[in-house]
Amino acid sequence: FPDKVCGIYVTANNRNIMLRAQMPHIGLREDILRQLAYVVGKDPEHATLYDWRIALSHAVRERIVDRWFASTRRTYEEGAKRVYYLSMEFLIGRLLEDAITNLRLDEAAELAFRELGIDYAAVLLDEPDAALGNGGLGRLAACFLESLSTIGCPAYGYGIRYEHGLFRQSFEDGRQVEAPETWLLQHHVWEFERPEAMFQIGFGGEVREAGARAVWEPTEAVFAEAYDTPIVGWQGRWANTLRLWSARAVDPFDLERFNLGDYVAAAAPEALARTISRVLYPDDTTEPGKELRLKQEFFFTAASLRDILRRFDSEYDDIRKLPAKVAIQLNDTHPAIAGPELVRLLHDERGLEFDEAVALARGTLSYTNHTLLPEALEKWSEGLMGRLLPRHMTLIERIDALHARENPTRKAAARANGQVNMGELSFVMAHKVNGVSALHTELMKATVFEDLHQLHPDRIVNQTNGVTPRRWLLSCNPRLSALVTEAIGEDWVDDLEQLARLEPRLSDAGFVEGFAAAKRANKVDLSNWMAQGHDLLVDPEAMFDVQIKRIHEYKRQHLNILEAIALWQEIRANPDAGWAPRVKIFGGKAAPGYVFAKKIIRLINDVARVVNADPVTSPHLKVVFLPNYNVSLAERLIPAADLSEQISTAGKEASGTGNMKFALNGALTIGTLDGANVEIRERVGEENFFLFGMTADEVVNRRDIANHAAKAIAADTRLELALKAIREGAFSPKERDRYRDITDNLAGPDYFLVCSDFADYWRAQREADAAYRDSAAWTRKAALNTARSGWFSSDRTIRGYMGEIWNAGSLNP
Ligand code: B1N
User: Fold this and answer.
1) How far is the CA of 12 from the centre of ligand 1 (A)?
2) pTM score > 0.95 for this model?
3) Cα Rg for the chain, rounded, in angstroms?
4) 137 in contact with ligand 1, CB cutoff 6 A
5) Predicted ipTM beyond 0.95
């Protein structure tokens, strides 16, 4: 445990704090009551769940702070290299249970609340999700932060403190309705405001040449104010910081206008400045192309770089040490402006030669690509970029010129056709570029970065994504975790490959029964929750078949619902064929402007209404779309899943991380050879994975076949009948052509090859049915999925980044 834990505290209290640091459960109940009285200001008699939650959070937070200070001190003492993870999104979800798990306070907290007569589970559930992200990219950033702390790698996450995270989703008449999410309305216990860490960030204006250097004189400016959240790792051995920036006006209030009675105009500067950190763009793999988005990107990137250099300056006096002491990871291209901005700081503001500034920046920066979808590859018009960031525009031109000088055979440039290509820019400004699964990395080399890869064959590396086992097994699935710990001890929690030691236990009937019982109990819990909260009655004996992720054509939720329709029709035609009962569960949000994805949501809801009301099929098939899918709902669903739907068009899903969470929790995957599915299948064994569909290469060839969709439909009566039912209004009798867009698309261009993959998907689903009927064999396959998923820990991924990209070490004792 870190020494000098509480050197700075008043001596009278020292002994208690010492004790608490080593044994955090000591005095927890007293601390909760103290916090309730003196921080929340409530008498236990009148405390609400909210009050108890705030009191508990403060009691837990106290126990993190000592470790947090100790970690920072250690980093300074050792002169260690720091890692900075710049990300537009951090989808952290709830923090209280995470902190309690990592400090191992669960039993003490449960006991304390039992003694107090308060429902502990309800206290935990009272916390709103911090939904500062859209999906996989943001959740990955959150898993990485937790792993960095568990490993003890000195690191900071940098992002935006959005006032409103991802919208809240509800359904009206089956349609998605978006409402603003208001996570900050309640007191956010975990953050510390840092008014002293404030930077002025400029936009627009002119560039003035001053001798060899240029001076940028922006016309508009806002303040970036820091808020820090400690992120504690497993067993509280280390804590890092998530620093989020909030925008505020430089001149918050126009008194002259106010005195003239124009109150709205008087408050306008503040409102305008604050819009920068007002809302998260609700995009996942689509490009919004909005000026405000570019402002957000520059705002948080510039503030983070200033902060990083300030911290560097406080320790070192030679800027040439920057790459040795600082590693900055760009989470996709959203912070790509870091390249030119860092060059500007080094060249314009610190007087380094341009070429040296570029070399130092490149040694410090690295870039992760998360998607190859053309619509998600960020490009900004030169007009917009030149207006908002005139100096950066010139620097990008010079970076291109330098790179062309270094590489005379180079074809493309970051600045081309009136646009700035942020992927190209990130590539040339990074010493390493990584993909997020083996397949994705190979496709990067062969497609979007083909030319640059030829020039720099050592720059692209792979780091397959991972998930934190603390949240995604230990805390979300207590039954399975307890079973695992009983079987192999608890070292698996931060050494997930230990799960392999479960394999020999598969010949032990007691263990296998325990595994099946844990899954069953999780399914009963989920059924009860769906009955109470959503008025849905499902049979926990049925197979729970789950697809939870953003709604996107390439993820093909419509393939899944087409199969449900075909199955429904087939059961109706032949109700006594001994069907394996199924509950198809969907969850996910569509970007508000993504019309087709919203149609898919409505179709699923319409199908659910019709199918669930059919007395003939209802013992065998239910369809459920749970609203407002978020991290907390994932934690509830994944432990209860039997079948994990990972059915994207091959070549389109960069990695996926939900796929890993399901396998880890003992669900079998039905999936294509896409993203990390490929690696999951390799590890869990092909006999424990339901594979279907075309490969990435076959997908490309299939598109060249004229009328590929029509041909697939003509060859498959089931598909034809399912499409016909939609077209004839079986699920929208009052508006028969409601789904014309979908059926026309599927029968026509069908770019994502839903029809071409349908027959093979159907076959794989029936194989899953047959496998599920043999429950002993199924349990064995499920347990093998858990036992062989150890490699998918984000600890492994982070160690890969530390070794291959950051050259950073761990300070954990
Ligand atoms: O990043 C995840 C991957 O597991 C997923 O396969 C991938 O789809 C996801 C623009 C994105 N790629 N690109 C985004 C998010 C927000 C935005 O505004 C693009 N998300 C992914 C983690 O590697």
Assistant:
1) 51
2) yes
3) 27
4) yes
5) yes
